[in-house]
């Protein structure tokens, strides 16, 4: 027997161990004012509170105290057996009551089916009001469930019993629900489903006018929404009113349709539908009659039930009605055909979100219409003001490939669009796509240049061009201006060019072309500008993407052509330097025509300004990998006139004029000198012992150096030279004016006879001058035929020197006469004065006549 009982005992022990191992234990802490209830749906599992001897187990457990409690389930999967209810009571008996209903313990009990209940109560005769945040709630049939599995149910407690107002989901047009006196709001969430609640506000509303009242905000059409009466599944029997208030947007029509109606068995009165349109129009119709259709404006529907007979198998009131809204008016229709324009696409957008514009593409409503390239589309516009629409177009151009030489591409022109479009073109974009590693050359039309719009000098032309790289980085905004300086822009890679009106309203007024495209081999920089500054004013150079800064590790260059006889002054007027993470920013300047040393600066160096360039030069800027801030530079170039060559020409002209003036003065002086000089110097020499020498142009046959005509017996200095000097000046001080610039003969003592004066004879050799100091004896020569003798030789010692003197001078008298008149004695000073003769400017050209008297 024991052998039979022992296996049974072992089995019972193992079963008990298995049951203990299947137990599931959790710890629950109810919030204040919250009741948590665990309800079993079958008897396969029980729930126990606490542990040890005080533990109690049952199929239902209610926790009300706000303290931690250990809950044990006698099964491993309690979520398959138990549901959890979390109840909260809200008493809103005051007018200022406003409570936000939030599901408590929302993060717990994920393995259970959860039901959150809010029991609501207000003053008698009032309604409790539920306000739902946008986008509100929408009503569904009781048999349906919400897409997110979070389903709300509203119940009203009446004298006749609870009435199910309806089931609701999130994201609908219902913004407010008012329920009579007392009720409950329930949120059901299946197990394993995340809680996605709509936190609604609870407050006390006005006096009750029916069992339920809903406020509905209908969106723009087309839109359709369903509504259901209370207790829709079994029917509503109480003689109560149900009201729906609808807000309809302008330019919208509405239509009410009763889709399913089950009339009650009325004992008194009848079921009626009262409509109020706006503030003045109201009418009443039966549920079986035609309801309002194609109406505009806000409206309300009040459904009044009769005193229905409530017996078994007799249905109550059930109504499912639909409200549809749609646009009013007649749409504008047009067709766009882009099959003949390669690469062209259109975009139409409503820029005013407050307008009532409805746009459709091929009968499908669109917020933004996009007509792809190479397609044909039917467009519809309803209540769309032209000023609210914006039409843009894009054309993709596949540029030809380039090998080693430049290729000329097409010019950028705006194609002709369909004139049936209801709006004019506002913006046009060209997308230039390269086939290989090439460079796009953008050049203005012949006879014009581009101007970059910068804060100091913006574009004031009819249109402007926004040039960008395809990855979104802007090169800059440009216009074709009379004062433009840019001859060419070279960009590496694909390019986007967008043209927009500047001082005009629409681009339809512009025909183009606007730019000429060229394709050249790939360049090393990202952008290269070729510019020619203006003489009339300064030129501004802005780095790409100004003022937001250049792209990391990108570079840009400017080739600046300077005209002859000008030099350029470069000034960096606005510089923003980054903090580099790797590499350095660099700005370098160098001449194009020579190998001179370049100037360069990095982000940690100060710029030397201004920079003067005598000839054409290049300006290069490159960015680093910035760690913070940006690299942006605005430069200013002004042309200055060169002055060196003109100064030399002016000085040469002035020098030449001065030389001509000097020559003219000299010629005038010479002419005047010759006019004042007498033509005939008639002179004679008195000879006491002979007859006078006839007058005429007699002269000595020999020069003054060969004869003795310059030797005097005696010279009276005061008589001879006294009138030449200043009477008040001492005789020993010579100012160099006594000689009037003439050479003076040397004095030699007379050694001939002193008692008689020989007569002058035609040929006489008796009388001679005894020349001392080694001079040889020479007889007195025949009288010369003229007195215009050559000028004596200058002394060896400069006559202007103070050291010049002749100690052999003695007190003699030189008697001369002119033209046969009386003797004119000239007294020469016999003292040993210092003579400083002064040369005349014309002494060599015109010798003066000499006069002598032989003693």
Automatic annotation (TrEMBL):
Annotated region (Disordered), positions in chain: 815-855
Name by which UniProt lists this protein: CUB domain-containing protein 1
Annotated CDCP1 second and fifth CUB domain residues: 101-204, 423-500
Keywords: Membrane, Signal, Transmembrane, Transmembrane helix
Gene that this polypeptide is encoded by: cdcp1b
Stored Pfam families: CDCP1_CUB_6, CUB_CDCP1_1, CUB_CDCP1_2
Domain CDCP1 first CUB: 25-92
Signal peptide, first to last residue: 1-23
Species name: Carassius auratus (Goldfish)
Keyword Transmembrane included in the entry's annotation: yes
All residue ranges annotated as the CDCP1 third and sixth CUB domain in the record: 219-311, 525-637
Biased composition (Acidic residues): 841-855
Residue ranges crossing the lipid bilayer per the database entry: 646-671
């Amino acid at each position: 027997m024991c052998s039979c009982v022992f296996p049974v005992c072992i089995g019972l022990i193992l079963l008990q161990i298995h049951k203990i191992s299947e137990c599931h234990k959790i710890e629950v802490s109810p919030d204040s004012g919250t009741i948590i209830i665990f309800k079993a749906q079958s008897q396969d599992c029980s729930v126990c509170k606490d542990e040890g001897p005080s533990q109690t187990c049952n199929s239902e457990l209610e926790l009300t105290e706000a303290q931690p409690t250990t809950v044990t389930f006698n099964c491993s999967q309690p979520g398959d057996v138990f549901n959890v209810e979390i109840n909260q009571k809200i008493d809103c008996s005051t007018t200022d009551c406003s409570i936000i209903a939030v599901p408590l313990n929302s993060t717990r009990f994920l393995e259970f089916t959860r039901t959150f209940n809010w029991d609501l109560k207000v003053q008698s005769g009032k309604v409790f009001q539920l306000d739902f945040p946008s986008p509100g709630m929408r009503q569904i049939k009781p048999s349906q469930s919400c897409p997110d599995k979070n389903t709300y149910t509203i119940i009203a407690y009446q004298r006749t019993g609870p009435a199910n107002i309806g089931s609701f989901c999130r994201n609908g047009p219902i913004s407010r629900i008012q329920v009579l006196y007392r009720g409950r709001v329930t949120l059901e969430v299946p197990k394993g489903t995340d809680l996605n609640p709509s936190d609604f506000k609870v407050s006390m509303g006005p006096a009750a006018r029916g069992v339920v009242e809903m406020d509905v905000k209908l969106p723009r059409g087309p839109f359709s929404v369903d509504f259901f009466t209370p207790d829709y599944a079994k029917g509503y029997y109480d003689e109560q009113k149900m009201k729906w208030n609808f807000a309809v947007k302008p330019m919208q029509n509405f239509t009410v349709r009763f889709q399913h109606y089950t009339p009650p068995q009325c004992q008194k009165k009848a079921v009626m539908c009262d409509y109020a349109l706006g503030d003045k129009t109201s009418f009443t119709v039966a549920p079986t009659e035609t309801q309002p259709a194609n109406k505009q404006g806000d409206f309300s529907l009040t459904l009044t039930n009769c005193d229905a007979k409530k017996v078994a198998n007799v249905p109550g009131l059930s109504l499912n009605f639909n409200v549809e809204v749609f646009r009013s008016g007649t749409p504008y229709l047009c067709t766009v055909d882009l099959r003949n324009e390669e690469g062209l696409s259109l975009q139409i957008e409503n820029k005013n979100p407050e307008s009532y514009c409805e746009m459709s593409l091929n009968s499908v409503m669109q917020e933004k219409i996009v007509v792809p390239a190479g397609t044909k589309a039917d467009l519809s516009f309803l209540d769309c003001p032209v000023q609210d629409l914006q039409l843009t177009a894009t054309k993709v151009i596949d540029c030809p490939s380039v090998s080693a030489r430049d290729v000329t591409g097409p010019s950028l022109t705006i194609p002709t669009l369909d004139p049936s479009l209801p709006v004019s073109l506002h913006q046009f974009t060209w997308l230039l796509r390269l086939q290989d590693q090439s460079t796009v050359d953008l050049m203005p039309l012949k006879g014009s240049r581009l101007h970059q719009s910068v804060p100091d000098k913006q574009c004031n032309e009819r249109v402007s061009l926004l040039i960008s790289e395809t990855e979104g980085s802007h090169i800059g905004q440009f216009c074709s201006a009379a004062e433009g300086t840019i001859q060419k822009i070279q960009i590496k890679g694909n390019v986007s060019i967008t043209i927009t009106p500047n001082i005009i309203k629409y681009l339809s007024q512009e025909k183009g072309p606007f730019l000429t495209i060229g394709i050249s081999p790939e360049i090393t920089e990202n952008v290269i500008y070729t510019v020619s500054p203006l003489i009339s004013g300064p030129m501004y150079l802005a780095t790409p993407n100004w003022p937001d800064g250049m792209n990391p590790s990108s570079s840009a260059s400017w080739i600046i052509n300077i005209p002859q006889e000008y030099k350029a002054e470069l000034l960096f007027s606005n510089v923003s330097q980054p903090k580099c993470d790797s590499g350095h920013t660099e700005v370098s300047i160098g001449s194009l025509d020579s190998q001179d040393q370049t100037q360069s600066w990095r982000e940690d160096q100060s710029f030397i300004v201004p920079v003067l360039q005598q000839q054409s030069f290049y300006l290069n800027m490159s960015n680093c990998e910035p760690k913070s801030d940006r690299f942006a530079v605005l430069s200013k170039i002004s042309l200055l006139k060169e002055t060196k060559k003109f100064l030399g020409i002016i000085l040469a002209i002035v020098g030449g004029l001065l030389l001509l003036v000097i020559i003219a003065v000299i010629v005038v002086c010479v002419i005047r000198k010759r006019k004042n000089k007498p033509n005939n110097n008639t002179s004679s020499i008195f000879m006491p012992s002979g007859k006078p020498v006839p007058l005429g142009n007699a002269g000595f046959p020999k020069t003054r150096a060969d004869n003795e005509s310059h030797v005097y017996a005696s010279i009276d200095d005061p008589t001879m030279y006294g009138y030449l000097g200043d009477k008040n000046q001492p005789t020993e001080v010579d100012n160099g004016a006594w000689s009037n610039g003439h050479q003076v003969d040397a004095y030699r003592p007379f050694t001939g006879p002193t008692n008689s004066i020989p007569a002058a004879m035609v040929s006489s050799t008796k009388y001679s001058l005894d020349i001392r100091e080694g001079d040889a004896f020479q007889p007195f020569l025949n009288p010369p035929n003229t007195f215009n003798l050559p000028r004596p030789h200058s002394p060896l010692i400069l006559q202007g020197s103070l050291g010049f003197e002749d100690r052999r001078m003695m007190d003699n008298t030189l008697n001369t006469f002119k033209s046969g008149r009386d003797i004119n004695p000239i007294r020469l000073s016999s003292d040993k004065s210092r003579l400083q003769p002064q040369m005349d400017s014309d002494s060599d050209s015109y010798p003066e006549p000499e006069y002598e008297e032989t003693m």
